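Hi V.,

Quick status before I head out on leave. The structure for the redesign project is tokenized and pasted below; the design run finished overnight.
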């Protein structure tokens, strides 16, 4: 059986990645009845399977930090839909999940509020930046060469989404209520909070070339590094093998999320 995971501490945010196509029916045993019912409501079976793979990975990882069985891990949601661990635990744990098509990524910290967003880079169907970004961000994007625009757009989109998810306030905060730098991951302005640029940190996530990702965290100026847990990247495959050996997926705060395309 997998050992418990160490604390992240004040200088580390853990980043976990797994495939949502690593599906097996046995994974549903880790989910609650409510989650299984939710999976059954997807129109396309593939989407329901990916939801199960995402939730099973989430439960598997968080349960190891807290030394509990995955299915016994209680999750609650704030009024804006951001999930959090229910009840009292021996360790405070902050987390956030994002997914795009076949890939899921989870950010975990026992010190800081976190948010993560990943997106698949694909052509845009409309002028999303003009509709949602701040005037400063929009004008900066317009100065870029056509071959630079798409990458920059998705980089900015994931930074803004990750920040909103870390705040946990949903769409109650408009996307144009804050500025994020395009050239580097940095919050420049948040309406009503002059100290926000100092207190919040943004980090570009290492991903495949067709993906873009960002982590946001309320680090209050502390130096942070991202720790990629690649040595156990395929947690779901490991789980299924273990079970068989012993047996006779606009912005929302939970793991259902809008894509810009």
């Amino acid at each position: 059986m997998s050992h418990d995971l160490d604390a992240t501490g004040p200088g580390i945010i853990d980043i976990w990645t797994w495939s949502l196509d690593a599906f097996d029916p046995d994974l549903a045993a880790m989910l609650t009845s409510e989650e299984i019912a939710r999976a059954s409501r997807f129109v396309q079976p593939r989407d329901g399977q990916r939801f199960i793979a995402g939730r099973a990975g989430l439960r598997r990882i968080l349960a190891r930090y807290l030394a509990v069985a995955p299915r016994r891990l209680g999750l609650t949601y704030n009024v804006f839909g951001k999930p959090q661990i229910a009840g009292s635990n021996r360790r405070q744990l902050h987390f956030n999940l994002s997914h795009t098509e076949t890939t899921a990524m989870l950010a975990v910290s026992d010190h800081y509020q976190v948010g993560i967003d990943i997106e698949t880079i694909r052509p845009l169907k409309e002028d999303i930046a003009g509709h949602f970004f701040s005037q400063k961000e929009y004008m900066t994007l317009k100065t870029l060469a056509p071959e630079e625009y798409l990458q920059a757009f998705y980089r900015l989109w994931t930074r803004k989404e990750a920040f909103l998810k870390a705040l946990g306030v949903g769409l109650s905060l408009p996307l144009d209520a804050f500025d994020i730098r395009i050239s580097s991951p940095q919050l420049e302005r948040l309406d009503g909070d002059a100290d926000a640029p100092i207190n919040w940190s943004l980090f570009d996530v290492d991903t495949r070339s067709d993906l873009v990702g960002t982590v946001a965290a309320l680090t209050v100026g502390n130096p942070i590094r991202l720790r990629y847990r690649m040595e156990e990247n395929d947690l779901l495959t490991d789980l299924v093998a273990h079970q068989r050996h012993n047996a006779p997926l606009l912005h929302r705060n939970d793991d259902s999320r809008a894509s810009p395309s």
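Above is the designed sequence. The two ends are 41 Å apart (CA to CA).

G. will cover questions while I'm gone.

Best,
W.
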